[in-house]
Amino acid sequence: MTTGTDEIYQSKADHRARQRYRRHVIVGQIALVAVVIAVWHFGSGRLFDPFFVGSPLGVAKVLLGDLRDPRFWNDVRVTVTEMTLGYVLGGLGGIALGVLLARWRLAADILDPLFTGLNSLPRIALAPLLVIWFGIDMASKVVLAATLVFFLTFFTTLSGIRNVDPALVDVARLVGASERQIFRYVMLPGAAAWIINGLKMSLPYALIGVIVGELLIASSGLGYRLNSYSTSYNTNGTFAMLLVMMALMMRLNALMGLVERYVLRWKADTTATIQTY
Amino acid sequence: MLRLTNIGKRFFARERTVTALEGMSLDVATGELLTMVGPSGCGKSTILNIVSGLMPPTEGTVELDGAPIHGVTRDIGYVTQQPNLMPWRSLIDNVSFPLQVAGAARSERHDRAAELIAMVGLAGFEHAYPHELSGGMRQRANIIRTLIYSPKVMLMDEPFGPLDAQTRVILQDQLLDIWSRTGVTIIFITHDLHEAIGLGDRVVLLSARPGRIIRIDEVAMPRPRDVFRMHDSDAFRALYDAIWVELERQVQTVDKPR
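Output (structure tokens, whole complex):
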């Protein structure tokens, strides 16, 4: 018997070949990073103007300095807090409304043009309005992140529940399940893959919303710090912040991957999900 | 006794009315295994959808032991052609689902499900997910998921249709075993005349659309039957030939261009 994550090998030799292949991939990846850093290091000042590209050592210096600076950690804390709040609020709101409208067809059809319209709006453009409404502190960033996350999770939840196999609903009905039981035992687990996918796709958008908000106007946060480095033409500092954001996002994605693997452990293959940025 | 009285079913499209069933009356005795054969499109599935209560008839009534059937009831179980297992539930949780709906405790429903799983030879696969099971294993799970809540009547819609020939005969054998042990009333639909005669106490032959009963034959073969060998007997062949003449005519009606 196999489980979803097991790999099947034709033979010992096949197994060894695949291990060797994986080793080659990792070696290649390390080499690529080394080459990029080397070109950057030796090229900076010779091939490229350090004013535009900085240098690896310069970036490392800023990073090491920032990592010892309590104000940097405060900025990380602010950004992560805004992002988490926005993600949770937007995600829960999207799931809740998706569930509600999936069960209430009339309301869904009436509201459909509204949602299509709002979804067509580049929501980043709401940022200035949100600053007027919610001020320059954390609230406006939380709301901006939440609107981005909300629509993705709302649409995926709605589609997920609508796409549950009607034959499975009939099975539940035949054995005497109530509407509530059908929802709990069939609709919700049936839509789980869609909902998780929506949550996964919207995770980067939570960070985008927060950073855009902070770039526009803020007094703390990673976006604010990025902005103050770039407006003072500190290229190394700007690169350093981009690296920090990248690292943050990669950690969060990995965490989300674990949640997905757990929730969808019944699936044959859980790795084949859409990645959009 | 399950009694169908003058059942008719019409479907309405914009400018067209399709009559799927017409004037169908039939009594199925308690504990009987009744099989139905007919050409494709004869409304076989429609009959089961109506008897199960999933679909209201346009006219006529269905009664079980004198009480009319309106809507689904746990007295009537329905084994569909597709296994329709929930992919996110393990085998044992799929099989015990009807007991969970009824509010049974986890240990109780798992004990009961484990018994049935062992009975159909799936012991060891309790915690496998549907995608890890073969087609025959899934269909067995589908059948015992219906058996577990002991309905009085079990409707079966070509349950072995998608399976390979060997698995099919094995499952037919298991079904006869289950039926003789539980005494459940079964209406079994198939398009395979061998299967219909081999399993049934009586075989109902349906016409091409609109579905009507053309003839009902008693299968005068003793039980317990050997599904692996009975096709050789003279009684089997005589009945097969008699029904086939009529079935062939119906199949040709379907294929004829209008």
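Residues 1-43 of chain A form one domain.
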